[in-house]
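Can anyone check this?
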Amino acid sequence: MTSFLSIERKRLGLTQAEVYEKIDVGKSTYLRWEGGKPIPSDKLAEIEKLGFDLLYVVTGRRKQLEAVEDPELIPLNDAIEAAKYAAREAIKSVYQVKKLRNEVSKPAEFDVLKNLDLIEKAAEVLAESEITGQLNTDTLFTALKPSKKQGER
């Protein structure tokens, strides 16, 4: 099981050792947290200082475009363009995957509302790639893999 703490650490490009040494906890304690055990509030405050998105670590939900509020980080127009691009490309990507899987044969058979979860996942990957200038196709393909829930009928 991958925890949100682990995902966030990797997003920041940090090793486990870098984190547990900087927040002054033992390796086994930190590994338990990455395994899903609760993190004490004083240590949450310390990992936040390292750049961790605490909302994501605790709930799995990202802060909503907080970086856009600071024009020096990402100009608002660029963020809007990235979001528009990501949304358009996410819909096209999910449609293409569904077509390859023979789940749809023509655009009229593709129901966007039934595929919102996949589109959202694809949009997240594509928006990040548009902002950072780096597309991780493995991440996109992983995001578009059918979940058990989608496969059940």
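Reply from J.R.: I decoded it. The radius of gyration is 18 Å.
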